[in-house]
Write a structure and sequence with these properties.
The chain has 83 residues and is an all-alpha fold. The protein contains 3 helices and no strands.
């Protein structure tokens, strides 16, 4: 039974040709989903958390989670809030 040719990486050349390359018209990065208001809110929350003594990394986590929670509640995410 012939399974076709395989590249040096072990991937079937037939399968490799079916996989879209990054230059095939697809964007490299996802579309920006945060509005300018979301960005301002993120910055404000991050600064507030830093003033409360949280580390920079933890402050960023809290800020992002808060903004994303609000976006979800407003129905601005791909997977919208179920009622």
């Amino acid at each position: 039974m012939d399974h076709g040719e395989f590249s040096a990486s072990g991937v079937s050349t037939a399968l490799a040709s079916q996989v879209a390359s990054p230059t095939a018209g697809a964007p490299l990065m996802p579309q920006k989903s945060w509005s300018k208001k979301d960005e301002r809110m993120y910055e404000h929350i991050e600064q507030s958390q830093r003033k409360e003594g949280r580390s920079k990394g933890r402050a960023k986590q809290i800020a992002a989670a808060t903004v994303n929670k609000r976006r979800k509640q407003e129905g601005r995410t791909k997977q919208q809030k179920s009622k």
